[in-house]
Amino acid sequence: MGAIDMSTLATDAPQSDLRIQVLARFRRKKAFAFAVPALLFLYLSYVFFAFDVPGLTQRARMDNAVILLSDAISYKTHVTRDNRRGTTAVSIEGSRRATYEESAIPDWVERDGDRTVIDLGSGHRVTYDGPVVSYELPGYGVIRMEVGESIALSLPQNEVPDFINASDNRVVVTTPAGRVTVTRSRSDTFRYAYGWEMFFFDLASPFSGRGPLENLGLALYGERLDPALPNAAAMLRDFWCNSIWQHNEVAWAIFETALMAFLGTFGAAFIALPLAFFAAQNFAPSRMIRFAVRRVFDFVRGVDALIFTIILTRAFGPGPMTGALAILITDSGSFGKLFSEALENVDKKPIEGVQSTGANAVQRYRFGVIPQIMPVLLSQVLYFLESNTRSATVIGAIVGGGIGLMLTQAIQTTSDWEKVTYYILLVVLMVIAMDAFSGWLRRKLIKGDATGH
Predict the structure, then answer these.
(1) 225, part of any domain
(2) Does 409 fall in a domain?
(3) Are residues 290 and 340 in the same domain?
(4) Could you give the angle at which helices 417-442 and 247-279 cross, rounded to 10 degrees?
(5) pLDDT over 70 for what percent of the chain?
(6) What's the whole-number mean pLDDT along residues 101-111?
(7) CA angle 403–404–406, rounded 5-degree value
(8) Which of 49, 205, 306, 331 has the highest count of CB atoms within 10 angstroms of its CB?
(9) Phi, psi at residue 153, to the nearest 5°?
(10) Which class for 260: exposed (0-12), middle (13-18), buried (19 or more C-beta within 10 A)?
(11) Could you tell me if 429 and 403 are in contact, meaning their C-beta atoms sit under 8 angstroms apart?
């Protein structure tokens, strides 16, 4: 047998160990690649049953969602009969401020004494004849409801169909043409139409009910409908003072919301900037001061602005300034953390250059530190301004100010969903405008270019 080459064994041994290590690492990565999806699947399975997703699916009422979406782009005209007094009124969304005068009732409502005939279109007709309400439904027959000690329902067929919800005290008939609700106190017929009725002019305006071309002609060359003002100025006044859509109050609410975000954001920045020097490792006078200031930042940043809103509302009462203070307190902690981290990364050479001129501490910070961190500061402040514009809407609903309050009130009425849509669109437009403004300001102050080119 030949002699064993010991140098060859010495070379092969490390290669064998390396191969074993590489294979072991591949096995670990392969196991990890399978473990992560498996854990994610187990977690999602737990969420599926813990949050009762099957029960949520069964309880879902998609028909209510469809009604809500349709209400966002349409309005209802109510033909209401007071069954106790025997009076009938026609109004938009059931509002007293939007009740038609007798001479201006729509032509699809015919009144003859105590008898009222409502044409819902496509052959659907509802008739109020004293205490009796009848609905002529094409393809089904006449549904008759008589108001007395209870609601007596008479149907062409013995079985109650799905589109009728009936009890002794209430009967609701819902069809694509409209809805009829009859109780002992009142009878209501709802006629749906697309659009936002009276968005420009309410019923008190002489321009209400006229077509766009007719109003345009009045604005340009028509005779004055108001002797004190030209028609164009009167149109602008009636639009701005619209008692239904309240454009003047909505504009003020939007201004309050933007003001809350502006005061809260920039107030927090002014407070956080000097405190950030005490929280930065390279500027803090001592470690104890740095620790204390950082914990204060953690506390005010860790408590949500809504919590501070509730506390401040109890202390100072409701109002836009309370909302601005809540944003200011919360953002002071966030800005303090961000600003202190920016200060810890400054270059010492510009500071030393300013110091060599004999500048004091304040001058060193002003000319050696602030120019370095200013782009970061402005970028963060403007980003928070955009975010707080949205937050101010929610905070305004709590403190009773801004567009948030009007949005909450419109949601609580559960009838004016077109106003809810209007307010949401205004909030989105306000955020877009704030984003464009902050982008322009960022380019102007940081890059020195107002055009962005």
Answers:
(1) no
(2) yes
(3) yes
(4) 40
(5) 94
(6) 87
(7) 65
(8) 331
(9) -105, 125
(10) buried
(11) no
